Amino acid sequence: MDGNTSEPTGGCPVMHGGNTGHGNSVTKWWPKSLNLDILHQHGARTNPMDPDYNHREAVKGLDFEAVKEDVKALMTDSQDWWPADWGHYGGLMIRLAWHSAGSYRLADGRGGGGGGNIRFAPLNSWPDNASLDKARRLLWPVKKKYGNALSWADLIILAGTMAYEDMGLPAFGFGFGREDIWGPETDVNWGAENEWLAPSENRYGDLDDTSTLYNPLAAVHMGLIYVNPEGVNGNPDPARTAKHVRETFARMAMNDEETAALTCGGHTVGKAHGRGAVDSIGAEPEGCPVHTQGFGWDNPGHDGKATNAFTSGIEGAWTAHPTQWDMGYFDYLFNYDWDLAKSPAGAWQWEPTNMPEDKKPVDPTDPSVRRNPIMTDADMAMKVDPIYNEICQKFMADPEYFADAFARAWFKLTHRDMGPKANYYGPNVPDEDLIWQDPIPAGATDYDVDAVKAKIADSGLSAAEMIATAWDSARTYRGSDKRGGANGARIRLAPQKDWVGNEPERLAKVLGILEPIAAEAGASVADVIVLAGNVGLEQAIKAAGHDVAVPFAPGRGDATDEQTDAESFDPLEPLACGFRNFQKEKYAVAPEELMLDKAQLLGLTAAEMTILVGGMRVLGTNYGGTSHGVFTDRVGQLTNDFFVNLTDMDYSWNPVDGDLYEIRDRKTGDTKWTATSADLVFGSNSILRAYAEVYAQDDNAEKFVRDFVAAWTKVMNADRFDLIA
User: Fold this and answer.
1) How many CB atoms are closer than 10 A to CB 326?
2) CA of residue 103 relative to chain centroid, distance
3) 327 φ/ψ sector (left φ>0, alpha ψ -120 to 50, else beta)
4) Active site residue ranges
5) Euclidean distance between CA atoms 272 and 591, whole angstroms
């Protein structure tokens, strides 16, 4: 062997991830490179299940009642390696479920417990999730027993719900059906900080104006679910904390009553753990050596006693009976005075000044010892803030109302990211339709589709008008929380009908023609909008010389204003749409980055994103009719001209004004087309160019049409959960 190719003495012959290993990634070398990995993060290559495995079918065969009973049984099966507080794991399991679901935020629908993401970094090692690794290990025997049909995502949420039920709170309901992911959600922006619990100023334009918390964030620190329990930046001030509580819960789609119910009900049971020195606690799971097997936060002073457990650093229970659902939280909070104190771990907490010894909760390990109860700054906010105080007074006057309010809020917290009820399984799915589930009536399927298509074709609408309207209706879908989409035809309701990106004048014109057609045929407007898009697409395909049918599945329904929580739909407004070359205003983020984000939410692969952009350009569906990226002389025909001309070296690409470019003939210097960076990225990014070259080939003109139709249909049906087996 040539000595120059041998490994140096003491070196390692393994590249540890190849050229994309730690500190050596493509984006490390070229920070402005468009990273397409988020479009393929949960692909088939990461999934260990059989190719034909269908979780929706598997979960139907689950013995739901047996699972529930097994989960309840483990609540009081205290283990020596992690003993239960007062012999009951309820508080721990509630915290696990809460912190799994509580990462959800309304702005982009990401986070939440729907995929079991808390099993992976960074969430499994957030400071706020300390010792939840123990809760997952306690649940392992149940997961092992029921196998594939019981996802970790379902089991984690079920554990918290069953904990409450076992401690006396009847559940509002429960839906199985969450499907596990097999790696971390790399698309979630948890914040830009490089340290845990970095000062909150890093997340706000103005810390005293809570509305300036940067979107899409909801938590006030990197590594926390909500607010700092010690106060803003660790400085106790309940009135100030109340403002941050209100903002962060609102960003989870919770109103003031739901926020108060969750805060008070969450602390009606369980305790905080901080009996020990913080500097003695070991590393988080992702930072531990291999022999710990993912067990983090080692506590040398634990000694197998629940009393000595460590999580947040705050120490104490909130009620006299932490394993019972009762009104004890309110009794403590409102009937005693509270002063600031430091926990054994040095954390700020509030403790009572005038509580008799016999009213205090007993030690979780030794019932002969009584300990001071505690309140966090967020708890004190419920007393100090006039709005929260008024709500709490209402709860105290009617315990049944409080129990119902909490049970409903808990159900919303733990099911918000599951989308419509079509995704719920099991015997405990509530019959009641809740507005946050975006209910949609069932649509008709027995009308004459061909007759409707004929009327649409004769309506005088252009193909571009019909295609753009169908796209705008469907593009609101978010796979993150399964909201939005064409089903429901909410594009005709507030706020969507007035969104700038939906071109209200054009939209009103198209709806004015399609709605009477739908009414006459007995079809939903939602169906007819999609069907019109298909009609326009088939016209464009025929004009290009191809004969490819566009699939259509009737059955969409039409939602009403009463079934639409208009305010919660505001975050779904497209601020940019690379597929129609639209951008509401200039942003710090490049248009191609915004396009990538939307493609990920739509569940598209990089190839599908490429196909749809190329097709939408030549179809003439750009916002406002602009010609940017319309690289064709045959506008309105579904051709592969976008890719052919993008890859043609007879042209040069020249920046002219900000994000605008001119494509010029190299020989004459004449400007042939204009483009944005959302167009040119398909030629500049090496991966996207590889796809573009496939569709520019002479032998792939018809393949492009077929693939465009497939990607189009995927978007149109993204929210058709009734079509999934």
Assistant:
1) 18
2) 8
3) alpha
4) 99
5) 45
CA dist 615 and 606 (Å) reads: 14
pLDDT digits (tens, 9 = 90+) for 42-56: 888 889 999 999 999
Tens of pLDDT, residues 252-281: 999 999 999 999 999 999 999 998 888 889
Quick one: what percent of the chain has pLDDT higher than 90? 92
Q: Crossing angle, helix 504-521 and helix 449-457, to 10 degrees? A: 140
Residue indicated by tokens 């508080």: 91
Residue 31 CA neighbour count, 13 Å, CB half: 1
| Mean pLDDT lowest among 6-15, 324-333, 480-489 | 6-15
Angle between helices 377-384 and 386-397 (to 10 degrees): 80
8 A C-beta contact, residue 415 and residue 175: yes
Helix axis angle, 677-684 relative to 686-696, nearest 10°? Answer: 90
**Is the C-alpha dihedral spanning 478, 481, 487, 493 positive or negative?**
negative
Q: DSSP string of 463-510?
A: HHHHHHHHHHHHTT-BTTTTB-SSTB-GGGSTTGGG-GGG-HHHHHHH
Task: Quickly state the pLDDT bin for 12 (edges 50, 70, 90).
Answer: low
> Which of 510-531 are b and which e, b meaning 16 or more Cβ less than 10 Å from the residue's Cβ?
bbebbbebbeebebbbbbbbbb
Residue whose pair of structure tokens reads 């975050």 in the numeric block = 571
pLDDT confidence tier of residue 3, bands split at 50, 70 and 90: very low
Look up residue 376 and give its two tokens.
């966090």
Spatial contact of 143 and 152, defined as CB atoms under 8 Å apart: yes
Query: CA 649, CA 498: separation in Å to the nearest integer?
Result: 42
- Please report the pLDDT score of residue 670 as a whole number: 97
Residue 481 pLDDT grade (very low, low, confident, very high; cuts 50, 70, 90): very high
Q: How many CB atoms lie within 10 A of CB 119?
A: 22
